[in-house]
Task: structure prediction
Amino acid sequence: MEIQEFSLERIQSLYENLVELNLSDSGVHPYKLKELLTAEQLQQLADLELGYGWTNGSTQLRQSIANLYPGKCADNVIVTNGSAEANFLMAMSLLKEGDELIVIVPNYMQIAGWARAMGVRVHEVALVEEQGWLPDLDKLQEVVSDKTKILTICHPNNPTGSTLPLEQIQQLADFAKQYDIYIHADEVYKGAEFDGNELPSFADVYDKTIITSGLSKAMAMPGLRIGWLVGLPDDIYLAWQRKDYTSITTGAVSEYVANIVLEPDFRKKVLQRSKDYLMANLALLQEWAAQNSDWISFVPPKAGGMAFLKYRLPINSTELAHEFRNELSVLILPGDVYGLDGYFRVGIGAPTDHLQEGLSRISHYVRTHHLDKR
Ligand SMILES: Cc1ncc(COP(=O)(O)O)c(C=O)c1O
Result:
């Protein structure tokens, strides 16, 4: 099997722990365990036996997750190691060689990369910057065929932070129903909508949906490695069969914490922290972008922990990212990893002082090394 390098993850893995200012993350700055647990809970954790759990997740945790999706129960849920494993199990369960997949791009790029390796034909339908990074849904008709198995979307979107209006969510559901295809929605940024109105899940509007989500992004706990799939019980069962072959279970410590933070009032508090963080940093980024409008522009994100900036400099985005890393010890993610040169992604979930200092280094550097030479 030949597989394309997953450059988005590889760049972060190689460099994010080596730079002074990491602005490449897409989630909100992570919690410490002691910020989440009471003294009594920390003590319970110290007494926790580190055994195996259930390979699909404990019934209690699956039920807590199901409660986030009206009408769903524990049988609709499998707990995974991060949403990355959820995506992987989804693809392994529902796709096979010769199938076709529609991918709304740009997105996290994991599903398309893996699907191609499996011999699936991938059709891309673009989000259009001039339309606020929304898709032109008429394009779907041009790529659908009787081999199309799944339409996959990352919503809210990585990297643009765009969210679909309710009519478009419904139109996508109607389209999928018309052709009897699955919708796979990676909703790991749901809950971090800046206006405070949590979007509906695709699972709320269409039965033949499979949802990826988890605690890494809007919930700011990537180190727990807790993700999940929510879908029809038969499809969840297929994913469970495959999970026995991949990672067996999630970690006992992580499941213990997940049960606590998914309690509704707790989750609300966590999401409020995320929104406060992101709104403050977005304002800072917008001010910086206004001061640098001679080379930067962007469509403000509506949700999630990142913004996708367009730059007007005669340099490739990967080269620019390496320059910032080597010269400034600042890591951003080049648009190239999304197949979109001329852009870079900045994490707005970073600590505010890091974001401020990183942006300041970038603009100072660009003025002296690129703009003054134009
Ligand atoms: C849309 C999306 N899905 C899944 C993942 C994987 O996240 P994790 O496995 O940490 O939950 C990411 C990570 O950036 C992402 O952006």
About this structure: The chain has 14 helices and 14 strands.
